[in-house]
């Protein structure tokens, strides 16, 4: 399985086990469940100024550390290290992945490993089904970001990749669609966006909502 598929399995299993509804998904709760199930020690503290996070596996167990000097990156860095937990550590008895700004932004021997961990993190924070639920409900860009505690930039790229994976649009068109959704959400007019009307073709009429509810009981 690739990083997206592994993240989907992890989030689906978590939501099924905890009976978490799509609108109630919060990645911090998923983090806690993973740490408990995998017996992971989690540390959030000051580290070297260039280090974002680290995961270590040895005879004593698994430890994840995230640098508290970058509070705006705490959620993503934690999810990134969990990506290493599921994607890379199963293949090693003893291993350490130390992630710093250079390893994530420049070409390194482990660039694909880091990209995979980033992809996993994005899908763990914002699962496909959760994103689709908010789309169907007509939620604005900013409310989605608030509910999932995502940075605006992270959410823009998450929506970009969603469109890229599901629809046949070229890059510049996708960027235009995402930016249009972002701008209209500023005025609470997101339901008029290209995303909702041209790409997803969401019907927000009362009849469509009633039909959706009826289908759930069939």
What does this structure look like?
Helices cover about 60% and strands about 10% of the residues. It is built from 11 helices and 4 strands, in the order ααβββαβαααααααα. Strands 1-3-2-4 form a 4-stranded mixed beta sheet. A hairpin with a 2-residue loop joins β2 (about 50-60) and β3 (about 60-65). The two termini are about 35 Å apart.
Keywords for this entry:
218 residues, 4-stranded mixed beta sheet, 4 strands, elongated
- Helical content class: 55-70%
- The oligomeric status of these chains comes to single chain
Order of helices and strands: HHEEEHEHHHHHHHH
DSSP strand (E) fraction? Answer: 5-15%
The pLDDT mean sits at 89
Radius of gyration: 19 Å
Count of beta strands: 4
Number of helices: 11
Distance between the termini: 33 Å
* C-alpha geometry: elongated
Which parts are unreliable, with pLDDT below 50 for 5 consecutive residues or more? none
Q: How does the major sheet shape up?
A: 4 strands, mixed
Give the domain tally. Answer: 2
Structural classification: alpha+beta
The strand order across the widest sheet is 1-3-2-4
């Amino acid at each position: 399985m690739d990083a997206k598929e592994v993240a989907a399995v992890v989030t689906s299993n978590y939501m099924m086990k905890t009976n978490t509804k799509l609108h109630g998904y919060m990645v911090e709760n998923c983090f806690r469940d993973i740490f408990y199930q995998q017996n992971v020690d989690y540390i959030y503290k000051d580290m070297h100024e260039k280090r974002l996070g680290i995961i270590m596996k040895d005879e004593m167990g698994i430890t994840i550390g995230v640098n508290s000097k970058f509070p705006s990156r705490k959620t993503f860095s934690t999810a990134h290290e969990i990506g290493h937990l599921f994607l890379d550590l199963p293949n090693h008895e003893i291993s350490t992945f130390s992630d710093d700004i250079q390893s994530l932004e420049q070409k390194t021997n482990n660039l694909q490993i880091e990209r995979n961990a980033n992809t996993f993190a994005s899908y763990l924070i914002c699962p496909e089904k959760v994103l689709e639920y908010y789309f169907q409900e007509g939620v604005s860009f900013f409310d989605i970001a608030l509910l999932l505690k995502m940075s605006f930039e992270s959410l823009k790229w998450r929506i970009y990749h969603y469109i890229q994976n599901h629809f046949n649009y070229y890059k510049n068109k996708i960027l235009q669609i995402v930016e249009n959704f972002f701008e209209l959400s500023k005025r609470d007019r997101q339901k008029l966006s290209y995303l909702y009307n041209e790409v997803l073709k969401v019907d927000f009429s009362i009849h469509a909502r009633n039909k959706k509810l009826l289908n759930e009981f069939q």
